[in-house]
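Can you give me the bound-state structure? Components:
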Amino acid sequence: MVAPVLVFGLFGPWIWPHDPTAIDLARTKLPPAWLPGGDWRYLLGTDGFGRDVLSTLIDGARVTLIVAVVGALGSALIGVTIGLVAGFYGGKLDALAMQLADVKMSIPATLLIILLGSAIGGGLLTIVLSIVLLFWASFARVIRGQTLTLRERGYVALARVANCSDYWIITRHILPNLLATCIVLITIQIGRAIVTEAGISFLGLGVQPPDSAWGLAVSQGRNFLATAWWIPTFPGVAITVTCLGSNMLGDWLRDALDSRASTL
Amino acid sequence: MLTYFLRRAARAVLTLIGISIVVFVIARLSGDPSLQLAPEDATPAELAQIRAELGLDKPIPVQYLVFVERVAHGEFGNSIRYQQPALPLVLSVLPATLQLGLSAFVLSTVAGVLLGVVTALKRGSWMDSATRGLAVIGQAAPSFWIGMMLILLFSVQLHWLPSSGRLGLEHMMLPTLALALNSVAVVLRLTRASMLETLSSDYVRFLRAKGVPRRLIVWKHALRNSSIPVVAVLGVQLGHLIGGAVIVETVFNWPGVGRLMVEALNARDFAVIQAGALLVSFFTVGANLSVDLLFGVIDPRIRYE
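Here's the bound-state model for the whole set.
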């Protein structure tokens, strides 16, 4: 279920049957091929501007892919660093980090996105920044908790006796033990990142037309709900299926790699 | 009980301060406000004067304190679009958002817990699989799209329910459902897992051996002991729902803060956006705090977490 996004995102221009930005006002709102009036050259029909729905979906996969990878990795990088430092040193640093995480959890995601969008406008940067801002805390919390227990292990005490620097202990003795958890967390967050990106694009704060994104396509299809249901329906199916796929991948990885993360 | 209350309240206050800092910082990201107010041909001297009037020449921490003072007095500035103070504007639509968020919260709590318990009891049945399948999809699909699919089914095809506006109970059903579905799924899965664990515990076996009626075991003993992880998640869900209402509102033309803010976004009406973000966040913190306290009363163990 995740594979199509990878393929579409990377090789879109070689796959799509039509140019996703080509406007053809003679062929607007063509229904999907299997319905009366449909045309097999436009498998999923055309939208209000006569663009091929399937091609815009393939084109939109690129944004989904970029956001999922960059957003999840970016928030992982920041969240894991904060979690490691907070868990390892404890004290005031820890209290500050956890308070920050609390603050983040209390601002509704949509509001943070709108605030950020109002300040710096829409675009890919807004999407990635929003996702990093929204997701770092989930990483920080889990990693902090596990660092707290790892810190008390015997080999960490031995490393201290051997006069290893804090940096060495964190990167060589603690981080490798957290790798499985990190991978599981990232996979789970990718699913959330995809839905969040769709929400941002839906609000018009993501990539701007003529570029396509699935959330944007749903939003543009809103006006055709009563007359051409396929325009908003298929992009939503794409979002749901992709998110579902990465959620299931995350669940599977969690069971396979790391039982400690099972409370997530 | 008092220490628990005070600790939670202190955390809520710290969180409020944090939120105000975040809003302040992001507002500053949008650029120099003096440039928006000054005429286009303003000289540097005139700009400096405007900056001085706005207090922008002072150090950032001082500016922040001034910002807090203004907010505390309810001064968010005027809405550019409506030519009136932003705060009353937001306050006038806030009840609609809270109504939607809270009704979705009630729905997800009741439906989530009920379905969670029932699927735990009927583990492995077709109902269990069907409900869990729906829950997995509910967690993956974006709420705005679910909303549109509900409109397609119940308004466009079946003509059962209205697709927009806020007049009566029938107008509330689709937005509430669209908003709640994700939370129902989360609460359901957690309740089910927690119930399964409790039902296989020793004291449940003991109660059963003692001849306590099954109904009593399930709804009184097991459910109460399974509730801690569920309660912890409910607090978070309430925040999600009030925030999520903002996006669902745009689908159903629900006259709440979300629709106001999205319109403000298009008009670059910063005062309204700031007022809306701060106010809704404050309500979320308040709502979280009350859920925490309420359940602290219900279950003593939570107080010693």
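A couple of observations. Chain A has nine helices and no strands. The CA atoms of residues 109 and 197 of chain A lie 11 Å apart.
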